[in-house]
Amino acid sequence: MATLDNVSLYKLWIAAITILPFTQTLSQTENYIVHMDLSVMPGAFSGQHQWYLSTLADVSDRSTARATATTSTASSKLLYSYTHVIDGFSASLTPSELEVLKNSPGYISSIKDLPVKHDTTRSSKFLGLTPQSPAWKVSNHGEGVIIGLVDTGVWPESQSYREHGMPEIPKRWKGECEGGTQFKSSKCNKKLIGARFFNRGLIAKYPNTTISVNSTRDTDGHGTHTSSTAAGNYVEGASYFGYAPGTANGVAPLAHVAMYKAFWDEGAYTTDIIAAIDQAISDGVDILSLSLGLDGIPLSEDPIALATFAAVEKNVFVSTSAGNEGPFYETLHNGIPWVLTVAAGTLDREFNAVLTLGNGISIAGSSLYLGTTYFYEVPIVYMNGCHKMSKLIKLGQKIVVCQVGNDGNDLSDRVENVSEANVTAGVFITGFTDTEEFIQNRFPVVLLNQKDGKTIIDYIKNSNKPQASVEFRKTSLWIKSAPSVTSYSSRGPSASCPVVMKPDIMAPGLTYISCMA
Ligand SMILES: *[C@@H]1O[C@H](CO)[C@@H](O)[C@H](O)[C@H]1NC(C)=O
Ligand SMILES: *[C@@H]1O[C@H](CO)[C@@H](O)[C@H](O)[C@H]1NC(C)=O
Ligand SMILES: *[C@@H]1O[C@H](CO)[C@@H](O)[C@H](O)[C@H]1NC(C)=O
Ligand SMILES: *[C@@H]1O[C@H](CO)[C@@H](O)[C@H](O)[C@H]1NC(C)=O
């Protein structure tokens, strides 16, 4: 036998290391949504679920050339059988199993599972919804309507889900209140009438993941926010740490809520989301509210587009968010022509801190600071651009005024430097309008526009002992520039269907506007 020379050994070694990872990926499974032709289903099957199980048992059998595949291995592959959203199912398949499936009777097409991202006390008054307004009269505050949400779950103890004043649950309702981790099925009532959760797709994708709260309980806050905005009951005396005081309620305060949790701290996948939509259609929701969407996928391959089409066919009205990727064009993710796509607008409300200068002049700036409410007669200094950290740290207990340009990055750096310098508060003069991340600061930050900034600088320069008091937690209403589109709201057109103008309408999304705008 000829001995191998070094070059041949090297070639073999290279071949081995390139083949090894390849064979590993071959055995890895992926989730697929599989569209089937029901007309081909043999009459012997009692229903489509049995047919799908049998098809999958056959597939894993043939792809491994073993005759041992049983229905139990098939049922571990099957994630969901869908009834409404498509004729078909989702399953966790190896590449070879998928190839075999493609030749099975009834197979039409398959789509690979995809990860999905999910993107108030004044809104109803601002929208003109008073007890006398036609919209509330005609709809009777949404009485009898069931709103289903596919979201992060719900926090059922929130006052917004009290059943006080709610009508009976409609007889046609077929939904359920599923119990689970930290969520008893007794948590539902006449307001929150349904709670279900979907994570088989997520777990098939990440078999080793632990679902920390395996129930409809909301560990994020998004679903509680969206569902109470849509249909929350009246909550008197609500406020955000003193900001925005008033009565909180949804825009349809007599409507019922059903929550379908498909967004998890651990991730979210289309197989679970369309399973949630499928169930919501079965349960009998009237409206589906989805704060989600896929980007850059043709409508024919977008499981959410397909699922919402089925919902609309069954007389369910579907409302979706435009996305939060603005202000750039073509960032809109729900170009789906058959759903309502809603952009985010501002409310006529502003959260303020009021600065009262030593000369008695008062100036309102933007702030959402939640710490100390009041600083009384503190020395105030103007530090130009606030670039010199060495000077800032020597100031001590003073209010520091900085002139910042219109550049958000510069503002971000200056706020960070001043907050690290241990001064009392920072006042930033800027034309930058996307202020949300700055005013919600652990450090007392006040933002001023150029005109008010000049008033303060003039005062400091002309006073021999400049000082100011600051009061936080102030709320102003009736701000004239509202409504306007928020800068974060995604803009059309949608790449998947540019011929249909989107978004369709705008609704209050930002709960305040800043005085910068
Ligand atoms: C999951 O955990 C098992 C056992 O700890 C390990 O063998 C496997 O590689 C892990 N899988 C993934 C995808 O991390
Ligand atoms: C989550 O709860 C469901 C229903 O109670 C159960 O079937 C499932 O196995 C649970 N999943 C995990 C990861 O604990
Ligand atoms: C000031 O901010 C800059 C970022 O703009 C940062 O690199 C620098 O470390 C900060 N200085 C101090 C002393 O924190
Ligand atoms: C700010 O104050 C904290 C706590 O008093 C202290 O630990 C820190 O070193 C101070 N920072 C500066 C820049 O002086």
UniProtKB/TrEMBL annotation:
CC annotations in GO: extracellular region
Gene3D superfamilies: 3.50.30.30, Peptidase S8 propeptide/proteinase inhibitor I9, Peptidase S8/S53 domain
Origin superkingdom: Eukaryota
Keywords of the record: Hydrolase, Protease, Serine protease, Signal
GO MF: serine-type endopeptidase activity
Span of domain Peptidase S8/S53: 142-509
Compartments where found: Secreted
Main location: secreted
Gene source species: Salix udensis
Name under which the protein is recorded: Uncharacterized protein
Domain Inhibitor I9: 31-117
Annotated CDD domains: PA_subtilisin_like, Peptidases_S8_3
PANTHER family xrefs: PROPROTEIN CONVERTASE SUBTILISIN/KEXIN (PTHR10795)
